[in-house]
Amino acid sequence: MTHDGDDIANYNNVVEDVVNNDVVVDDHNNNDHKYNRKREKVEVPSFRRLLAMNGPEWKQACLGCFNAVLFGAIQPVYSFAMGSVISVYFMEDHDEIKKQIGIYTFCFLGLAIISMVVNVLQHYSFAYMGEYLTKRVRERMFSKILTFEVGWFDEDQNSTGSVCSRLAKDANVVCSLQFLFNFACSTRDI
C-alpha cells in the first residue's frame, strides 16, 4: 500500500467510475499501468432483474409484506389500548375497574404474542427469499465462469481462491441489497 496519496486518488476514481457506470479495463501486455487503461460502459444492474430472479419466492414475498403490514399496525392498536386503559381509572366502581383492567391485561398480552409471531414470520420470509436469491446468483455466476476459456484461469486475479472469494462476496452483496429492500419495506409500515 502506498502512503503518498495514490490510494485516495484510486478510491476517488473507483467511486467516480461506479457513479458514471464506467469499468476500467487494464491491458496486461504493457507494463506501464497508468496509461494503458481504457474505459467501457457497462450495463447498469436493474432492480427489476433482481426482483425477477426472486420470482419463485413470490409467496414468501407476499407473506413477508403482509406480516410487515401487520407488525406496523400493532403500534396504533397498542396506543388505542393504552388510551382506553387511562379512561378506566376514572371509573368509580372498583369491581368494574378490576374487570376492565383484567381485560386490557389480556389485550396487551395478546398484542405482545401477535407482535412476536408476526415479526418472526416477517423476518423468516425475507431471509428465505434472500438465501434462495443468493444461491441463484451464485449458480448463475458459477455457470458463467465455467464458460470462460482455460487461459482466463491462468491469470493471477482469476486463481481458484480469488474466483471462490468473488463468488461468495458478490452474491452476498446482492443478498444485502435484497435485505435493504426488505428492511425498507418493513420499516415503511411502522
The largest sheet is: 2 strands, antiparallel
As a percent range, the share of helical residues equals over 70%
Instruction: Let me know the average pLDDT.
Output: 75
CATH architecture of the largest domain: Up-down Bundle
What fraction of residues sit in β-strands?
Answer: 5-15%
Mass-distribution shape: rod-shaped
SSE sequence, one letter per element: HEEHHHH
**CATH T-level fold name of the largest domain:** ABC transporter transmembrane region fold
- Overall number of structural domains: 2
Summarize the structure in words.
By secondary structure, the chain is mainly α. The chain has 2 domains: 1-44, no CATH class; 46-188, ABC transporter transmembrane region fold. Helices cover 71% and strands 5% of the residues. It is built from 5 helices and 2 strands. The chain has a two-stranded antiparallel ribbon. Helix 4 packs antiparallel against helix 5 (160-188). The longest helix has 52 residues, at 94-145. It starts with 5 loop residues before the first helix and ends with a helix. The model is unreliable at 1-30, 32-36 and 185-190 (pLDDT under 50).
Which helices and strands occur, and which strands form pairs?
Blueprint lengths: L5 H15 L1 E5 L10 E5 L5 H7 L4 H31 L5 H52 L14 H29 L2
Antiparallel strand pairs: 1-2
